[in-house]
Amino acid sequence: MKPIDGVQRTLNVALDERSYPIHIGTGLVGNADAIAPYLAGRQVMIVTNETVAPLYLDALRDALPGKLDVRCVVLPDGEAYKSVEYVGRIWDALLEAGFNRRCTLIALGGGVIGDMVGFAAASYQRGVAFIQVPTTLLAQVDSSVGGKTGVNHPLGKNMIGAFWQPRAVIVDIATLCTLPARELSAGLAEVIKYGLIRDAAFLTWLEDNMAALRGCDADTLAHAIALSCQIKADVVAADETEQGVRALLNLGHTFGHAIEAEQGYGAWLHGEAVGAGMAMAATLSHRLGWIDSAALERCEAVIVAAGLPLHAPAGMGREAFLAHMRRDKKNLDDELRLILLRALGDACITSETPPETLDALLDGYPRA
Hints:
Elements: E1 7-13, E2 20-25, H1 32-35, E3 43-49, H2 53-63, E4 69-75, H3 84-96, E5 104-109, H4 111-123, E6 129-134, H5 137-143, E7 148-153, E8 156-163, E9 169-172, H6 181-198, H7 200-214, H8 218-238, H9 253-263, H10 270-287, H11 293-305, H12 318-325, E10 338-343, E11 346-350, H13 355-364
Helix pairs in contact: 3-4, 5-6, 5-8, 6-7, 6-8, 6-10, 7-8, 9-10, 9-12, 10-11
């Protein structure tokens, strides 16, 4: 394939016949060369939300070849709409348009849109092509890569879904310039996660460059996004359906998903809940004697520097946490499995946390 204007870096998610590229650059939403090669046929459904549509929908639609049959679905914006009901609107649009198995869905938006469109693609006529065009930092470094798709259920986050890989991920760094500061910070939670679980040198780099990241410096963001995507791509290639090592990508998520479910989806952004969840996981790792006080302080400091909450929600007690954590997808045979830190850059999966130690954490952890 010829070089694509605006692409600064291209990574590959190595999954044999399901392998696909991650193109990272600027101006890619409106670049036909970046998207057109990954279309399966002439029927294209772009799915976005009410916030993203006014910003980028026209540019994407105008960039597609004129011979295509292009339709659009615009959904409400927010985690509260990540449900089977709203995926049903995508299915309805596909059926009403008479789209066949050679159609392509394009997810234009953040993690909610990407997860919903991926699930719609996985299930429509038992599987059709889709392309991820993530417009939030969280989606660019995490949810758009790896093929996890799905929706929330009142009893648990992402409990209904499927593994379904995209044909390409198109990361346009320029879209981050329109993100609210709170959304950018939420995305940084997942970036920090990669340093904590896999790459201590990257964590140090993040500590040194956090101000530039929050200031939306393009070159700094490109480096952070590329390193994050490379770590995730390597983990996904080793464990596509999360039978083992891929669970490490959930550092902070067991606590974080409990916060989201208890507070109501959307009250806390996903990255905010993960930020607090990572702080809780680091504190538990320290209490188990796995990391020292200096490492814990570094974890907490980088989370705060990213603009993320350090404490759990006010009024959320131990029983509320445990009720949600017991439904976590990582659990096996009724054993609660947690992702904890043996060292900075070295995470592990454990089901051997003493119940009294976990109870003490949940009882005594600071509330906002």
